[in-house]
Amino acid sequence: MAAFAILKLVLVISLFHFSSAARNLAKTSDKNQMQFQYHNGPLLTGKFSVNLIWYGRFTPSQRAIVSDFFTSLSKPTSDQPSVATWWKSIDKYYHLAHLNTPSSSLSLSLGTQILDENYSLGKSLTFRQIQQLASKGAQNSAINVVLTSSDVLIDGFCMNSCGTHGSFNGANQIRGSKSNKFTYIWVGNSETQCPGQCAWPFHQPIYGPQSPPLVAPNNDVGLDGMVINLASLLAGTATNPFRNGYFQGPKEAPLEAASSCLGVYGKGAYPGYAGDLLVDPTTGASYNAHGSNGKKYLLPALFDPSTSTCSTLV
């Protein structure tokens, strides 16, 4: 099993929004190790479905925020910048890895959605149970996404993670027969447990500058925060699915495509400031990407491996 955690990264003056397996750059003296590079492992390629496993109580409108985000990845909109434009920038990783054919890119589509509103495993879950939930989705050419509601406690949630991505052998392998690895993502709704850690900049951070929080684009601090985490982990899943793709730092705690640009959402970002963002004139909500069905989202900057800079939509 390979798992990547969105770790709490306490900087000198700010605790930024968390992304996949973040760690303090100052804790390594090996400069070569800290270079963002390709480690020659496989990337996710071909057509993949994204299956959503909803654990706990979510309203239909909350589920739509997430499902529309995933639909938006492959559905360009006339309004720009868009979620599809953000996702398209991932192609640079494939080009630099010399995966230039259409069949070697990653095409995502929304797959099945599984609702577990009765908390079949209880309201306090271990990481092993997260994997158990992830295995409920299809395990062939799939990314299974587990989303836990705000009243579900997860080992390490808020203490050292806002979500994870990783891979492991499917349910059949657990029972002793052969099965290929499949990838999964888990993200929890932090609204009532730790929004200052996992839903910044839509909530004041626990540490660092206490500037006013931004208005969430879908008027849901918890779900809009989840989308930021999902986007970060999705980028990591595509470009570093098995701990030997694109990252910097040690593979046990890598900085990946989005977590290498921690807390950056627009140009001019600095500790405590997400950057120069678009603002909805009616709601006052801050965002940087248009999505399907009129949705707006705030998505993290992605590290551009061709320029070694953080690339933002705005």
How are the elements arranged and paired?
Elements: E1 2-5, E2 37-38, E3 46-55, H1 60-72, H2 83-88, H3 91-96, E4 106-116, E5 124-125, H4 127-134, E6 142-148, E7 153-154, E8 163-169, H5 171-174, E9 181-188, H6 195-198, H7 221-239, E10 246-247, E11 278-279, E12 286-287, E13 289-290, E14 296-297, E15 302-304, E16 309-311
Parallel strand pairs: 3-4, 3-6, 5-7, 6-9
Antiparallel strand pairs: 1-8, 2-10, 8-9, 11-12, 13-14, 15-16
Helix pairs in contact: 1-7
List the defining traits of the structure above:
single chain; 314 residues; alpha/beta; six-stranded mixed β-sheet; two-stranded antiparallel sheet; 7 helices; 16 strands; 22% strand; globular
Question: Helix/strand/pairing class, anyone?
Answer: alpha/beta
| SSE order | EEEHHHEEHEEEHEHHEEEEEEE
Q: Approximately how much helix is present in the residues?
A: 10-25%
How far from one another are the termini? 37 Å
Strand content: 15-25%
Largest beta-sheet characterization = 6 strands, mixed
Count helical runs.
7
Q: Low-confidence stretches at least 5 residues in length (pLDDT < 50)?
A: 1-33, 172-179
Characterization of this structure:
The chain is of the alpha/beta class and 314 residues long. The protein is 19% helix and 22% strand. It is built from seven helices and 16 strands. It has helices at residues 60-72, 83-88, 91-96, 127-134, 171-174, 195-198, 221-239; strands at residues 2-5, 37-38, 46-55, 106-116, 124-125, 142-148, 153-154, 163-169, 181-188, 246-247, 278-279, 286-287, 289-290, 296-297, 302-304, 309-311. The strands form six sheets. It has a six-stranded mixed beta sheet with strand order 1-8-9-6-3-4, with helices on both faces. Strand 13 and strand 14 (296-297) form a beta hairpin. Helix 1 packs parallel to helix 7 (221-239). It is globular.
